[in-house]
Design brief:
about 140 residues; alpha+beta; Glutaredoxin; two-stranded parallel sheet; two-stranded antiparallel ribbon; 6 helices; about 20% strand
Length: about 140
């Protein structure tokens, strides 16, 4: 949730650059709405229940059995949150997409604790903005 709060903090700058921010989560819609309310997010948190979008981007992995057992021992059942019995998760990823739908920057890390700094995302957006300004007649 801290990552979402950090993104919320830079949302005004994102908007000033003419961009939008959307988060996608494997959680069921009700959990995403609860997170959005609890963190007072001003951007959408969309549900990728069943990991359809993550699968299309090649981001899905299945937890090894020992981690599945560990999750279960803590009472964490992904089927409750994600709506499926498989212990699959998406790799955390951040994409910067231009107005033509082309991915211009991507950050994916197998270590879920390593997330891109929102300032890096702002720098990428500034680069896109500068490029589009140079291309205008």
């Amino acid at each position: 949730m801290m990552e979402l709060e950090a993104l919320q903090a830079v949302l005004p700058q994102v908007r000033e650059l003419g961009a939008s921010l959307v988060a996608i989560s494997p959680q069921r819609p009700s959990y995403g709405r609860a997170v959005r309310r609890r963190a007072a997010l001003e951007f959408d948190v969309l549900s990728d229940e069943g990991l359809t979008v993550a699968q299309a981007f090649g981001l899905v992995f299945t937890l090894p059995s020992y981690l599945e057992e560990l999750y279960r021992s803590f009472g964490q059942t992904l089927d409750t949150f994600h709506g499926e019995s498989a212990y699959r998760l998406p790799l955390p990823a951040r994409y910067v997409v231009d107005r033509q739908g082309q991915i211009r920057a991507a950050d994916v890390n197998a270590d879920y604790t390593v997330r891109p700094d929102p300032e890096e995302t702002l720098a990428q957006l500034r680069g896109l903005s500068a490029n589009s300004e140079r291309q205008r007649p």
